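Appendix B, record 7
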Amino acid sequence: MPANPITIEALEILDAIDRRGSFAKAAEELNKVTSALSYSVQKLEEQLGITLFQRQGRRSVLTPAGRFVLEEGRKILYATTQLADKAKEVATGWEPRLRIAVESIQNYPLFFEVLAAFLEEHPSLELDICEAVLNGGWEALEQDRVELIVGAPGPVPLQKGYRALPLGTTDLVPVIAARHPMAALACDPDALQAALPKLRRVVTHDTSRVNIVRSAGLSIGASNCLYVQTTDQKYCALLAGLGIGHLPRHRIQDDLDRGRLRPLNLQSTDGEYFIAWKISNKGKALQALSQRLAATKW
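Structure tokens (predicted):
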């Protein structure tokens, strides 16, 4: 039986060329000479009987067949990485890598302070941090895209096999920028209620990909919204006077004190938030970090 020409090394080369946009930059990333990559791709094309790349100006772009090989190949690369990680975990009980989703409104400075102390004790552990909004964190955990979620909003989904520990509440303040044309509404509750249906809401997208997305705060029932991806974007949009919305008090207290943002006479929200992981995940790194996060005063 002839050897399969699609090796792990070949897939890594295709992946690097696609991400970096050229053979030269891919060779630099892989610590190889450009001619070696060109030879490897040419040999693979000959063995498969297809063309993988075509030139577009100075860029090397995948052909449809090449794109198919790479997209399927990336699944193999991911699987081999997971295999290596699991083997190390079985041997030591400690995962070499943890993927963590942090809810967008959480206190990031405090979160990274906890991580700094944790990594001082476990310097070889690799962490992969992403941001989640509303149901996005729960979905990422369910689909095994992360091992731990931090600050996900309640309620905790039932019958999913999750272990969840409360982090407490986050004070979300409805605000309007001092530069907003209708900033005076912050001092006039009756006028605010009358104008509320016409005010644009700045809303952070739920990061769910498959499950039903969730609305919260002033976005519920709103007809005019400006959607953003992160709380930092929402903060900047609100500060620019593009609308109204809730922001965590720990993020904006200085802006409130200086008058750049004004609190609105509307209901604040302070729902409960959790750290959570799958009960079936027995990794020592996950357990140690989750205990440290749970013991932190948020």
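Remarks on this record: The mean pLDDT is 89. Residues 172-263 form a domain with the D-Maltodextrin-Binding Protein; domain 2 fold (CATH 3.40.190.290).
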